[in-house]
Amino acid sequence: MDEPLLLVDDDRELCAMLAEYLGREGFSVAFAHDGAQGVAAVRAATPALVVMDITMPVMDGFDALRAIRGFSSVPVLMLTARGDELDRIVGLEIGADDYLPKPFNPRELLARVRAILRRGVVAEDDRNATLTVGDLALNPGSRSLTRGQEAIEITATEYAVLDMLMQ
Fold first, then answer.
1. Is residue 133 within 8 Å of 166, Cβ to Cβ?
2. How far apart are CA 50 and CA 147, in angstroms?
3. Rounded average pLDDT per 10-residue block, the chain, 167 residues
4. In terms of Cα–Cα distance, which of 79, 123, 150 is closest to 140?
5. Is 112 helix (H, G, I), strand (E, B) or coil?
6. Which residues of 139-163 are buried (b: 16+ CB within 10 A; e: fewer)?
7. Measured between alpha carbons, how far is residue 97 from residues 43, 51, 76 in Å?
């Protein structure tokens, strides 16, 4: 398999432990230890999936996710100690594909990663093709909606529903 994953977390011990565990399961794991490095890493070489913490130096995970969604639809799983309901909602609303609070069972993380990757098996050209119906255009790269020249703000859930309906 050797699916490339990007782990964005400032906890270097956790990164090493997850790299070893996920490596045994057929994944190659690259690291970024703050949100800005994570955004740069996704821009440089899009991984199959990003696993990202929220609380990090330089740029937090929410800001990093917003930046990534500006140019990529790569799947993102938020893995964080900030597991309260509001943080989960915010993460999902701004474009996270899943959310797993710390502490976590590595087997559950593995199951969620595999589930996200199963759902996302789409040709890269298809994944980045803008969907157009009438004067509405849905851009998967930026996860944005426009009507004519006007940008329309939508939530992650609204994006997912529109994507399904427009396809």
1. yes
2. 30
3. 86 92 92 94 90 90 90 88 75 85 90 88 52 83 81 82 80
4. 123
5. helix
6. bbebbbbbeeeeeeebebeebeebe
7. 18, 10, 5
